[in-house]
Write a structure and sequence with these properties.
Helix content is about 40%, strand content about 15%.
Amino acid sequence: MASSHKKQMIDLIGNTPILRVNSLSKLTGCDILVKCENRNPGGSVKDRAALQMILDAKENGSLKPGMTIVEGTAGNTGIGLALVGRSLGYDVLVVMPSGQAQEKERLVSLYGADLKLVKPCPFSNPDHFYHTARRIAEENPDKYWWANQFENLSNFTAHYSNTGPEILSQTNSELDYFVSVAGTGGTIGGVSSFLKEKLPNVKVHLVDPEGSGACSYFHTGEYKSSGSSITEGIGIMRLVANFKQAQIDDAFTLADQDLVSVAYYVRKHDNIVVGTSSALNLAGALRTAVKARRGKRILTMLCDGGERSQSKLYNHEFLASKELNPDDINMDKLILKYQN
């Protein structure tokens, strides 16, 4: 009899289950589904991109034995690269802006990567975490391989070749909407491109946090934003290669209070504990369901679990400092807002 066990951690990446969010589905009369990317071994959707980027770099010769993988990240990609890189025998250096959720910093170190924290600053600043990682690789190209998740199209490929086909199979090709946030754009780029080929009538909605310009870019061709958000690793103010691949039908910005309300609602009614990006995805799926006709099937991504948002999203003191109210879980009020 053939063995069914996996040989190493990276073999567990992908083939994540899909779950129906019963409370939101009941409220809207639509099927609201989440693909549970928290079930990847590194706990997030970014494991997929990390695996594809490293395997492709090994194959094309840019990542050689003995080199160190370096990347600038808000957290999850760093955790994924640490998991995959260390499993394959590479050292990993993760450059993160300070002030991200402490849980992510700890996980990067737990998976054996070195962590370099830099001060948060605008992208235009040469000390930005992205530029810092790039500069480390450029100054010592024989030692470091820069993953470059924003421009590296292996990120897109991970979702076009794997996540998209999984969704098609798991939904029996019956899907009306795909809703997603975007950071690098790899997930929405790859999944939307694949689904549009196979299901021409599927609609793709981008949900953006405040402080991001992706929604503005979709509607006007310019990156403009206002406000800020407690979300981490999503939203962007420049056009990058992976996001260019995205095939989007509509885009909208939602306030942080929306994602806080939805996160606490699904925790109370479904015992699903989500992180900030997943909460924004669910709020986006709820808005899409409210505006669609009853009976539609909507899928979004559970990007990671709530355990790595505990110090922010599930910390009432932190929420109060941002004038956000975790007790405001009145979905009737939110639905009324989305109807208008």
